[in-house]
Every structure is written in C-alpha cells, then in structure tokens.
Amino acid sequence: MYIPKRFIVITPHPDDAELGAGGTISKWISEGSYGVLLVCTNGDKGSAEPDMTSQKLSDIRAIEQRAASEIMGLQEVIYFDYPDGELEDTKEFRERIVKNIRRYRPEVVLSTDPVRQKFYIHRDHRIAGQVVLDAVYPYSRDRLYYPHHENEGILTHKVADVLFWGSENPNETVNITQYIDTKIEALKQHSSQLSDKQSIGARLKDSAKRAALNQEYQYGESFRRVTFRD
Fold it and tell me: I need a surface site. Which of 27, 61, 203, 205 has the fewest CB within 10 A?
C-alpha cells in the first residue's frame, strides 16, 4: 500500500479508528501524510455505570479522543456530534462527509466496512460505512451534487481508494510492526470503553499477528480496499 499525501479517517464512534486502523494512521503520519479524523457520533451511550449520564460520557469520550489523536499524530479532528446509535443515511449526513472530502482532498478515505455476514456489527458502523462509500462515489466527484459548495470555493474531488477496516474479506494489509505500540497506547486512552486495560495490548498484538499471517513482517492491519482509480 502506498503512503498517501492526504487521508481522511471517518469513524462511527470515538475509539473505532484506533482499533481498526491506529497503526496505519500512525505510520502514514510519521512518513509525512496529512491526516484528518471525522468522528461521527459522540459515543454517549456506551457505559453500564449506574451514575453515568449521556452528557458526562460524551464529555469524557471527547477528552479521550483528543488524547488518542495526539498520540497518533493526527493534524485535525472534526466532531459531528451525532448521538450514539442515531446515525441515519440522510442527505444532511452525506453532505457533511462530502464537504469534508472536497475540502481536504484526500487520496485515501478509511472507514468501517458496512458489509458483514458472519458477525453482527453496530448499526452506526453499517450506516457510516455505507454513507462514506456513497459520499466518495459519486457524490464528491460530481459537481451537480451539492453545487452550492462551489460558491464557498469547495470544488469536487475524486478519491483514489477507500480502505474499510473490520472486513470479513480483506484484500490489503499494511505493515504496522513499528507502530503496534503506538496503536496500543492510542487505544488505551479510551479507558471508559476498556474493561481490562492490562490485557488490551496482548489482544491487539494477537490480532495484528493474524492480519500479518503469511507476510514478511510481524504485525499488520487488514482492510478491504475499494479502488476508484482511472
């Protein structure tokens, strides 16, 4: 996989990007890429604590996301702040993604794979992944979708590749051997979501080893790559 000059990561919840692509994000930025993170929801439902409220959890998760983003080196983090579990395939949501793709002009977009058959995934993951795919093609490319963007000086853009993490049918693996510890440290910042912070490193390394099976390196992250190149 080539190193893009610019990329956007579109994550349904705080912590999904670190889990699915934290090593790749860290690697690309360390090698000169400009990375932007779009966080779709505020993660305000993911707690079993009896005294927790949605507002308190949302505030905690925003702090955790900022800390994780700093560790990975992301240059910008944008919060859409939809409530957890309430992503919808709407024109408004799609336009927000299209506008940021057109503004930042990434070669690569990373997000969660909406297509799963063996295992159930969170509804927000399915919605986010599908809307991202539609936003990349054809909406971001064609000027007659959201033509008012031109009045703001935001022109159309064609993304070269989408990388979906969490895929059951990956066709691309990125060597993250030098960045596995950065991935682990970034995910550890999301402590509100970790029931066993001590074992997370070992579990991530086991997963990364499986992704790198039959490769010449130790740790990898796997993706389903969808290409829109000419």
Answer: 203
